[in-house]
Specification:
This protein has helices at residues 3-18, 25-32, 36-42, 46-68, 77-91, 100-107, 114-137, 142-162, 168-183. It has 184 residues and is mainly alpha-helical. Helix 1 (3-18) packs across helix 2 (25-32) and helix 5 (77-91) runs antiparallel to helix 9. The longest helix is centred in the C-terminal third of the chain and has 24 residues, at 114-137. It holds the Pfam family TetR_N. Keywords: DNA-binding, Transcription, Transcription regulation.
């Protein structure tokens, strides 16, 4: 494993289990077994490390989702139904700790903070991703549907994070499917 990957892996484990603010650079250095200069060589600041963590979590989510969405359903409502089922599965896995960009925006609430700004970029990316799938599936207003699905999925993610096993993910899937059926 490359040094930057090792640092990011350790930071991810700490950020996911303790929170971003509660995981100091000294702890990340100690847990990863690298020198401070090495960490800063790969990540010039903790903000850079946090943004790399957020990017990595987003990329892994999209890779996971894309690998499971069936491309032969792309031009039909079926891809959106599959998307809803996959989001429910993802939110209800034991490994789910919430949406990292939500958590980061709460830990860094100032709109001027780079982590908060990057969280907003990632939130918009999710909405654009969903709108693209909606457009491919034939939604009348793909941008609106993408935003509506984002609202539903983000809400379910928050409720399930705060109250695991609450059924929010299943209810969100049902609501999203009803919305999709009325939008195609």
């Amino acid at each position: 494993m490359k040094t930057n990957e090792k640092i990011l892996t350790v930071a991810t484990m700490l950020f996911d289990s303790r929170g971003i603010q509660a995981s100091g650079v000294d702890t990340i250095i100690a847990e990863s077994g690298v020198a401070k200069a090495t960490l800063y060589k790969h990540f010039p600041s903790k903000n850079h490390l946090v943004m790399a963590y957020l990017r990595s979590k987003s990329d892994k989510f999209y890779e996971w989702l894309n690998s499971r969405l069936v491309s032969n359903k792309a031009n039909s409502i079926d891809i959106l139904i599959s998307l809803c089922e996959l989001v429910e599965t993802w939110i209800t896995t034991p490994e789910f700790h919430g949406l990292p960009f939500h958590i980061a925006s709460v830990e860094f609430p100032s709109p001027e903070h780079p982590i908060n700004q990057y969280s907003a970029v990632l939130a918009a990316e999710l909405q654009d991703y969903l709108a693209k799938i909606a457009k491919t599936a034939g939604a009348r207003d793909a941008v609106a549907l993408g935003q509506q699905l984002t609202i539903i999925f983000e809400g379910a993610a928050l409720v399930e994070r705060l109250n695991p096993g609450s059924g929010a993910a299943s209810r969100a899937k049902s609501a999203a499917i009803a919305l999709i059926n009325s939008s195609i």
